[in-house]
Amino acid sequence: MLREFLPLLCLGLALGFEDEKKNETLPKPSLSALSSLVVGHRDNVTLRCQSHFQNVTFMLGKLEDSGYRQEQRSTGHKAEFLLTHLEPKDAGMYLCAYKTMVSQEWSGESEYLQLKVKANGLIFAATFSCLSILILFLSVFFINRCTQHGLSQEESTKRTSHSEFPKQEATDLSNLERISVSR
Questions:
Q1: What is the maximal distance between C-alpha atoms in the chain?
Q2: Carries keyword DNA damage (predicted)?
Q3: Contact (Cβ atoms closer than 8 angstroms) between residue 88 and residue 39
Q4: Pairing of strands 113-118, 38-40
């Protein structure tokens, strides 16, 4: 009976060991920047992801954009992701993970790394200048329209008063004549 039980015991232990392996998580990688995390508009930055294992596939992701994902195979312990021509929309929280050839499961995510992209002062100045010119143009346009509209009303009032003046004068004269005749 012990002979029959021993293979079953070994099989149970082996299956249990496999389940434990599946539940093991790979250690988290580390993520760092090779230069400053505050970069200028249209600048570049390199983010480095490092693991404890070799021959892995690294993945770089962005917390605010689930569709953002870069993958890179490496025979070493690290991968470098070059981010180029950065725009303000590229700023945010980045993370990395890796998977080994054996596990095919992604490790836990690294600590987040916050990348900031400074707006270019030249772009701000150009935008401000364009807006100022637009406001100036609209102001001149509306002032011109208002003064033309005011002048046309003034001219029409003058025309009306000039055309009515002889009639008024004639009425006044006939009234004076009546008053002087009646006396």
A1: 157
A2: no
A3: no
A4: parallel
> Position of tokens 């725009």?
87
Q: How many CB atoms lie within 10 A of CB 97?
A: 23
Distances (CA, A) of 69 to 61, 72, 83, 120, 166: 5, 10, 12, 26, 88
Sheet holding 65-74, edge to edge: 38-40, 113-118, 92-100, 56-62, 65-74
Whether the Cβ atoms of residue 82 and residue 44 lie closer than 8 Å to each other: yes
Q: Which residue, 59, 86, 61, is CA-closest to 74?
A: 59
CA–CA separation, 139 vs 146, rounded Å?
A: 11
At residue 152, does pLDDT exceed 90?
A: no
pLDDT at 37: 94
**Edge to edge, what strands does the sheet with 30-33 contain?**
30-33, 45-50, 78-83
* 68, 79 Cβ separation under 8 angstroms: no
pTM above 0.70, yes or no: no
pLDDT at 2 over 70: no
Contact yes or no for 44/115 (Cβ under 8 A):
no
Cα–Cα distance, 41 to 155 (Å, whole number): 57
CB 83 within 8 A of CB 44: yes
